[in-house]
């Protein structure tokens, strides 16, 4: 019984991530607002995802992107209440997606014209499956598993970096978003780099982090986190290979600006969370620890709480560096 409940918990996460996975592979893009609705040739060589100007569409993008991570985080808690909260989260995003599609479609990012009313088929197909799996799993609650919620949250933030800062931004009087996208593909490696970069902007790394957290919540060992961390490193390693393989005159960016460092941070945090089975890190404990330090009460501090602070400092410092680096020209 526990084995089937664990399988249901894990299966709910890829179902909740279904719209991200499907659009990554080109399925259902015309039914969600952050891609062009036209299927024929257009003056834009880039199909998306686009940063939207309309608030409902942008909120839906973030809801769809972060839903698998939210579901996995709630499953890490293991309780029946947390599982039912995950069901409510899935239902909320589905309801908002339907309202946005039928009542607030917004302008097409490529033409600026009002989008036609199209049902969001990826959401309709995937989210009921996720909700059903969670409802069945809620019958067999697990004990709370303190598996580093802060580490998983930091990994999700780093994995979503390209979706936050590197989605395509266009105006309707421009023919292309960037001259970089006009360069024709010259080799298999160029195609691979383009495909992985597009998957990064759509949010597939967030799905990898959520799947690793779901495998940890299902008590399926640490290899899921190891596989996710290795997958997250594929794109930075490809960046390094392409930088080394190019002629010196072909690359205008420095090595530091050519590598997707947020994915490296995400991979490190995923591996850390997966291989540290008893990491008890909480926001409340970190805040209390910081207050005690400010008051000069460092002596006699519990070593575990000092570890909490060290982890928080590393995550905050990495976040500040990533924010600062996002304002420099990157790939």
Give a verbal description of the structure:
By secondary structure, this protein is mainly α. The chain has one domain (2-279). It is 63% helix and 0% strand. It is built from 15 helices and no strands. The chain has helices at 2-16, 18-24, 55-77, 80-103, 121-137, 149-159, 161-165, 188-202, 204-217, 223-232, 234-245, 255-258, 261-275, 283-294, 303-325. Helix 1 packs antiparallel against helix 9. It is globular. Residues 172-184 and 326-331 have low confidence and may be disordered. The chain crosses the membrane at residues 59-76, 83-104, 116-137, 149-182, 202-219, 226-244, 264-289, 309-328. Keywords: Membrane, Transmembrane, Transmembrane helix.
Uncertain stretches of 5 or more adjacent residues: 172-184, 326-331
The Rg value, from CA coordinates, equals 21 Å
What does the average pLDDT come to?
A: 79
Distance between the termini: 48 Å
Number of helices: 15
Tell me about the biggest sheet? Answer: none
**N-to-C order of helices and strands:** HHHHHHHHHHHHHHH
Q: How many domain units? A: 1
In what range is the share of β-strand residues?
under 5%
Q: Which range best describes the helical content: under 10%, 10-25%, 25-40%, 40-55%, 55-70% or over 70%?
A: 55-70%
Keywords: Membrane, Transmembrane, Transmembrane helix
């Amino acid at each position: 019984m526990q084995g089937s409940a664990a399988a249901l918990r894990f299966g709910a996460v890829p179902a909740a991530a279904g719209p991200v996975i499907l659009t990554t592979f080109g399925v259902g893009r015309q039914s969600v607002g952050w891609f062009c609705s036209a299927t024929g040739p257009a003056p834009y060589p880039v199909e998306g995802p686009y940063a939207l100007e309309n608030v409902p569409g942008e909120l839906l993008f973030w809801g769809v992107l972060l839903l698998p991570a939210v579901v996995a985080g709630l499953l890490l808690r293991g309780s029946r209440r947390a599982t039912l909260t995950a069901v409510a989260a899935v239902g909320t995003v589905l309801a908002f997606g339907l309202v946005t599609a039928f009542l607030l479609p917004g302008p097409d990012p490529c033409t600026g014209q009002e989008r036609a009313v199209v049902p969001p088929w990826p959401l309709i197909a995937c989210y009921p499956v996720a909700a059903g799996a969670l409802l069945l799993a809620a019958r067999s609650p697990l004990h709370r598993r303190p598996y580093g919620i802060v580490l998983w949250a930091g990994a999700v933030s780093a994995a979503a970096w390209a979706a936050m800062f590197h989605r395509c931004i266009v105006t309707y009087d421009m023919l292309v978003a960037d001259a970089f996208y006009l360069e024709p593909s010259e080799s298999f490696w160029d195609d691979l780099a383009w495909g992985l970069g597009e998957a990064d902007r759509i949010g597939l790394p967030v799905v990898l982090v959520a799947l690793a957290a779901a495998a940890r919540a299902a008590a399926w060992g640490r290899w899921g986190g190891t596989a996710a961390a290795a997958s997250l490193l594929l794109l930075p390693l490809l960046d390094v290979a392409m930088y080394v393989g190019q002629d010196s005159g072909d690359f205008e960016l420095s090595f530091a600006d050519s590598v997707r460092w947020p994915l490296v941070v995400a991979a490190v945090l995923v591996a850390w969370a997966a291989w540290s089975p008893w990491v008890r890190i909480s926001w409340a404990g970190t805040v209390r620890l910081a207050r005690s330090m400010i008051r000069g009460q460092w002596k006699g501090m519990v070593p575990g709480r000092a570890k909490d602070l060290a982890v928080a400092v590393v995550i905050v410092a990495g976040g500040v560096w990533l924010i600062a680096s996002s304002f420099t020209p990157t790939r």
